[in-house]
Fold:
Amino acid sequence: MTVKIYSTPTCPYCKLVKDYFKEQEISFSDVDVANNASAANDMVKLSGQMGVPVIDIDGTIIVGWNKSALEEALHQKQKAKQAV
Structure:
């Protein structure tokens, strides 16, 4: 499973998402869109949003801190992985 978080260093909701993934022992890549215009453009193309965090879980896009949406997306990806 590939997890990418588009974030900024000062975003409190980004920190919540990263802390959640660390607690769940889910590895992720963190993309700082504050200092990377190309990554910021990629984030907007993916989500249609300029706000952070934007989380990409194997192509499932979640905007903002939404624990239930994160849990659901992770559950679906793990269930699909087990079915293979």
Q: What stands out?
A: The first strand starts at residue 3 and ends at 7. Residues 16 and 59 are 21 Å apart (CA to CA). Strands lie at 3-7, 29-32, 54-57, 60-63.
